[in-house]
Amino acid sequence: MDQQEQLRYSRHFLLPEIGEEGQEKLKRARVLVVGAGGLGSPAALYLAAAGVGHLSIIDFDVVDESNLQRQVLYSTDQIGLPKADSAAARLRALNPKIEVNPIREKLTAQNALALFSAHDIIADGADNFATRYLSNDAAVLSGRPLVSASILGFEGQLAVFHHEGGPCFRCLYPEAPPAGLVPSCAENGVLGVLPGVLGVLQASEVLKMILGIGETLHKHLLYFDALRMDFQKMGIVRNESCAVCGNRPTITRLEESAAVCELPVEELNAHELKELLERNLGIQLLDVRDNHEVKLCAIEGSRHIPLSELELRLGELRKDLPVVAYCKGGLRSANAVRVLSQKGFRAKSLTGGILAWIDRIDPTLKKY
Hints:
Elements: H1 3-8, H2 10-13, H3 19-28, E1 30-34, H4 40-50, E2 54-58, H5 83-94, E3 99-103, H6 112-117, E4 121-124, H7 129-142, E5 146-152, E6 155-161, H8 169-172, H9 185-188, H10 194-211, E7 220-225, E8 230-235, E9 267-268, H11 270-279, E10 284-287, H12 291-294, E11 303-304, E12 323-326, H13 331-342, E13 347-350, H14 353-360
Parallel strand pairs: 1-2, 1-4, 2-3, 4-5, 9-13, 10-11, 10-12, 12-13
Antiparallel strand pairs: 5-6, 6-7, 7-8
């Protein structure tokens, strides 16, 4: 290492568990960060600062203003720019001694194995179940450990999967939940600092694995409740019957459909809904958001029944009139349509939810 690196990493050299030999391990390491969002931001920043020599960042999204409440890799002047490129620029500015590879792609069954095989450790900060299951399966099939975190509201979870004989993600959760059952952060909300806590813990696990020191979470699931400042560690074990890492695996290749199975629903867009309302054709406009969301904004003329109460309040809807359901972004309304269809209603979901309505039809409504 040159003199500048000696100074940069001097605090690491003071730790006997790291020293110059450990810093060389960090410099040779190759880490892939899946998702440069709330979790990927702090994880990537601390991995870069620590001197991980090769960081790859895969993300196909662009920076949105709503990201800035928690995604600390970005600044206001980067709104609209690709996240992968913006993240790479920030990480190089933080540590010009490392190599950063931005990948402006979506993680798919076609590219995952090659990407994972080219790296030593995968840090998964995906915000959806499809990518989370795909990352898990690709990690197992490529023989790579996966440091996985998830967040929602005020709570987060962290574990190390497929490492030193420990379980994989499917050992705990064999199948993804039905689409729309678990809301995303965009639908539910998230405390801004929460991904910072979990992302930094992700980076800590990655660094320990590279250095070969301490104990990782490969046998435990760490749960964090920010409201109560409560950490809990729960023991987890490998499932010998697991479909991907078990003794007789049934998942032996990657498929997009293996992650999440969605039952299709009928949809209509904001302009189509506007036309129906203007023609006064007697549709029932159903708002399935939570109470606090309705106070922020609503489409005029809609009936409010939260998704959690829908099955108990079906009697408030007429079966002889079609229903158009909407939520914030379209996930919960799609789930509502599935429920309604099973009960004999004619129902459609508003594509993109009330956010699409605000963007395309009524910008005077308060966006959130």
